[in-house]
């Protein structure tokens, strides 16, 4: 009996120690959050990483020392100077990463936090908002059909799932343009004592977009301007901050390259992977494609994204047929995808398999693509996902062609010309503290 009592006592001590550690960690996390003047939680289906970067740029240029964290195509922490640090993971990403970022990067001088929602399941989204971020401003970029397994089959159900990240007694900002979905978000915000602000893309002038050297959408910029109005940051400063912010690695930058004697306009659109975003991007870009140049689309399908592969297979004969002269498949599900595309009316002779069923090297990929170009010019568009063997070969090839012109987003983020006013102020404060510390 004595041994049993000792075991029970030991278990109770371990439980008490774990509870104490948990309680201390939670209290520290909340104190770090409470010291911040502004906390912004960015959710939505498309554009979360881009909007996180833009909003952080607005706050930095508005004079606030701001830490941002994106998940996106490559997870990053963006410090008060705008400098980026990759997030290293030992296993699968979890929402606990949000707590680690706050602990490591929110020090006493930091005034604002902009953090991209990592969670997909509504329960985890709500936990992330109510316990990990506790934002006073939440952004829901838009409502699109994606992650239906976790968030619901209809747009209305998806809107409700996203709305669990609305703050209590705060502000919800959205650029969702469909009135019935926006009204649904408004009702969910009011249920939590918050108000909705519509970031209207019509408020963004063409001139406001000229400062971006990559494909950007007025919907995203409108959100940044809405945050600026809410926090009394001048419009000019807000735009300057967004122009200076380094784009996500998955953004579309249009460049033309010489590939085996052909001039190929490379459009890396891999980060756009829902129907509406892809169709919108094509309609935006089509007027600037070289006249008469064949447009070759790449469906890049990951093994763990079967639902997305199926979606795009159905999109090709309907939504994308007016834009695409040829289609190349990379990655997984090639036979199923190509069969669906042809059965629904897209010509079989315009579908070319270059993925897992073929396992091509780079030379074969390039020769197949350029062989589809009868003249001098072509447009090559990558879609659906980034990471497959074939896509990575192609991305690395185009990056190599950029040569000395190419700078990684990490290098760009450390460019002194991007340093915001708040960082200059912070450096001055640190310089003043050093003599004081030496005198002490």
From TrEMBL:
Organism domain of life: Bacteria
Positions of region (Disordered): 405-440
Report the residue ranges that make up the Mur ligase central domain in this protein: 44-209
Q: Which SUPFAM superfamilies match?
A: MurD-like peptide ligases, catalytic domain
GO terms (BP aspect): capsule polysaccharide biosynthetic process
Gene Ontology terms: cellular component: membrane
Q: Which Gene3D superfamilies match?
A: Mur-like, catalytic domain
Which GO molecular function annotations are given, in alphabetical order? acid-amino acid ligase activity; ATP binding
Alphabetically sorted, this entry's keywords are:
Membrane, Transmembrane, Transmembrane helix
Question: Which residues lie in Basic and acidic residues bias regions?
Answer: 405-418
Annotated transmembrane regions = 6-24
Q: What is this protein identified as?
A: Poly-gamma-glutamate synthase PgsB/CapB
């Amino acid at each position: 009996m004595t041994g049993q009592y000792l075991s029970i006592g030991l278990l109770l001590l371990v439980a008490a120690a774990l509870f104490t550690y948990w309680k201390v960690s939670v209290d520290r996390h909340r104190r770090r959050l409470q010291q911040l003047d502004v906390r912004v939680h960015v959710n939505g289906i498309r554009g979360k990483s881009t909007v996180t970067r833009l909003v952080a740029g607005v706050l930095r240029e508005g004079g606030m020392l701001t830490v941002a964290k994106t998940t996106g195509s490559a997870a990053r922490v963006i410090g008060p100077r705008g400098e980026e640090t990759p997030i290293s993971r030992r296993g699968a990403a979890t929402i606990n990463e949000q707590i680690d970022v706050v602990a490591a990067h929110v020090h006493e001088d930091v005034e604002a936090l902009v953090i991209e929602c990592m969670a997909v399941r509504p329960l985890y989204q709500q936990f992330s908002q109510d316990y990990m971020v506790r934002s006073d401003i939440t952004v829901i970029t838009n409502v699109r059909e994606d992650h239906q397994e976790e968030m619901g089959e209809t747009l209305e159900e998806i809107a409700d799932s996203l709305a669990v990240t609305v703050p209590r007694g705060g502000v919800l900002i959205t650029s969702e343009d469909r009135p019935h979905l926006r009204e649904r978000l408004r009702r969910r915000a009011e249920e939590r004592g918050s108000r909705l602000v519509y970031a209207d893309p019509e408020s963004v002038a063409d001139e406001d977009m000229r400062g971006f050297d990559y494909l950007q959408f007025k919907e995203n910029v409108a959100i940044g301007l809405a945050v600026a109005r809410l926090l009394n940051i001048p419009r000019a400063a807000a735009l300057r901050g967004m122009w200076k912010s380094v784009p996500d690695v998955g953004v579309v930058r249009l460049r033309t390259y010489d590939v085996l004697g052909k001039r190929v306009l490379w459009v890396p659109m891999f980060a756009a992977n829902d129907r509406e975003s892809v169709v919108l991007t094509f309609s935006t870009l089509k007027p600037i494609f070289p006249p008469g140049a064949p447009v070759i689309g790449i469906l890049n399908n990951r093994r763990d994204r079967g639902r997305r592969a199926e979606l795009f297979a159905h999109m090709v004969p309907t939504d994308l047929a007016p834009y695409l002269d040829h289609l190349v498949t990379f990655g997984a599900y090639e036979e199923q995808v190509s069969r669906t595309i042809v059965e629904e009316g897209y010509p079989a002779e315009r579908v070319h398999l270059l993925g897992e069923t073929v396992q091509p090297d780079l030379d074969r990929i390039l020769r197949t693509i350029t062989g589809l170009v009868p003249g001098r010019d072509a447009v090559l568009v990558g879609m659906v996902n980034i990471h497959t063997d074939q896509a990575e070969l192609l991305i690395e090839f185009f990056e190599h062609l950029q040569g000395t012109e190419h700078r990684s987003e990490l290098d760009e983020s450390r460019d002194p010309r991007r340093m915001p006013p708040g960082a200059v102020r912070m450096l001055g404060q640190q310089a003043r503290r050093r003599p004081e510390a030496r005198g002490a």
